[in-house]
Design goal:
binds protoporphyrin IX containing FE; alpha+beta; 52% helix; 3-stranded antiparallel sheet; globular; Cytochrome p450
Length: 486
Amino acid sequence: MITACSLTLLLLFFFFFFSLFIPFLLNLRFVVPGGFAWKKYHQNHKNHHLKGPKTTCGNFLGFLPQMGPLAHRNLATMATSLRANRLMAVSLGSVRMVISSHPETAREILCGPAFSNRPIKESTRLLMFDRAIGFAPYGNYWRRLRKIASSHVFSPRRISSLEGSRHAIANDMVERVCVEMNERGFVELRGILQKGSLDNMLESVFGINSDNEGGELLGLMVKEGYEWGKRRCNILGGRVSDLVTLFLKERRKDGDFKLRKDFLRVLLSLKEEDLFLDTDMVGVLCEMVFRGVDNIAILLEWIMARMVLHQDIQAKAQNEIDAYIGHQTRHIQDSDIANLPYLQAIVKEVLRLHPPGPLLSWARLAIHDVHVDKCFIPAGTTAMVNMWAIAHDASIWADPWSFRPERFVELGDFSIMGSDLRLAPFGSGRRACPGKALGLATVHLWLARILQRFKWLPSQTVDLGECLKLSLEMKKPLRCYAVGRQ
Ligand code: HEM
């Protein structure tokens, strides 16, 4: 009797003990570093270097939940905890990805020939951006587009030829600031910066501004476009296409396009054999407006948030302007910016702390098998560089969380244009941002103009909360006081 009872107890004990290990034993057979999308790859290639969070293959969602409005932060934390900063494998649903949070592997990805394509989402296609520079597959079509845009939109000559327009827009922004202060008692800069950036791009691309009926409509659509979503992109894509096709028709009807200087004129004046299809032109023209408006307005809002928060730094920038230009005696010109190193350092420091593209906005796609950091990466893998993580890495940047523009004055001639991967907010390599010089010229000039004209004070606590949409925006619009400088 006692023996039978002890035997049952023993069996129960073994059963209980064994059951504790069942999930573990099952997982051992199926878990793979990086998750579900990497399963096949791990079966076929013994690659022990590649790290990544392990999930069961049944976890079809992969790391989708982590990629929310703070994806850059979540991925940085994950990489650090797994010691996978150099390269981390993850699954985004069924998409196989690698993420670099280190300058060396970032260079391998961005500057090597393998990652020359970009993955295309359906929303991209719906907005016709798959035919535009940013998403066109690497090849002749992309090369042609980039060459034309480089010489007619982004060249130093073209940028300086539009300086007058940037000044006119700055005057308008200053006026709007005064009106808002009078009418509301405070300024919400976001709307003013968005309108300014929109006018800037409309002028360069279509030779119009947002007071023009078509321009105003396009502006509204751009605003909507930031709220990605399949259904909205579908509707929006159709409306944008109709409007820009109308611009094309009108310009052709006018027949005066050879006299104009905008990008639309350039595309329409190409030789017959080089002409693009209308549908391609629509994608190319719209992408310019969408990209140019978004990044510039967002970056300037972050800069102004920092100026309001750090009054001493704002005063130092204003003293630099006053000392060089003379207070209120004349407006700052593009050519003055080279003599304002502290102002430039402020822009670099904001790009380090609040890069508009923390994951370099658009990922890259491997067009053939490649090794990164000695790990085998199969063709078709999506790669991302977490520039936000690199720019906040304490082993690269001393005291990385503090806002200290002086660090760039001390560093001397630190280039942020893509040669130094410790801070490359415009990306690097053959698909680096072609609009970086235009973007910086605009941001420097407008920042200098509004700092010269006003002292900026907080009207409420400055909230540095962020939200990653198409770009990394301030979660809450900045509100402040603008007081004219005597
Ligand atoms: C502060 C301003 C800007 C920032 C921070 C920025 C950032 C970026 C980044 C991170 C990329 C991806 C680079 C890579 O994959 O290596 C990019 C690509 C691109 N940007 Fe910008 N950008 C800015 C301004 C502009 C402007 C003003 C334009 C056009 C008017 C523009 C047009 C483009 C285009 C067309 C691409 C795609 C290039 C390609 O795939 O060949 N960007 N930008």
